[in-house]
Amino acid sequence: MASVIGKRRNLLPWRLATQTLFILIHVLLIRAVIPNLVWALYGMLFWGILVFLTARTGRWVCSWICWLGGAQDLLARWAKPRISFNRRWTQFGVLALCVAWVPIAWAFSSQSMTAHTSSIGFDANNLWSHAMHLGLLGFVGGSVFLLGKRGACRYFCPFGIVVDGCRSARIKKRRGGNLVQITPRPKSPTA
Predict the structure, then answer these.
(1) Collapsed DSSP state (helix, strand, coil) of residue 81
(2) Any idea where the domains of the chain sit in the sequence?
(3) The pTM is what?
(4) pLDDT value at 101 more than 60
């Protein structure tokens, strides 16, 4: 048991280094602007692959790659849970927002669907998007002071809901062959 804990501690600097690298990559590559159709398709492909791999192999994405989890882990020494609430409501709300914001934005700004946008580096024309992006990073990092270690993940991140849904659908399919099982109603004794 002590050797397992020792091995985990030896991996901690590597995990923090990997998370810090992905924080930097994320800040450089992704901006909080309405993506064009190509970026939206790449995003769906990227998240689909991550959900598929995580459902099959475990939540290594959350502990090694996620830039939001990395920001919380860097501040984990000051983590103290002070508040708690029903996390399913907020997780489903964030999931609905993540799924719906791009199509709704395209409905109001149709030229953004076909616009060519470069997402590498900082752009002086989109300072509001950079401020929003860094504000999200600050909110998630600062959440450890109120919600505890990985509190934003626990209370807001919908990734676990999606992965668990895919995992349970796969298990049901393997067991029964069908995702929906219809059972006949029992006949009433008066009929």
Answers:
(1) strand
(2) 2-162
(3) 0.66
(4) yes
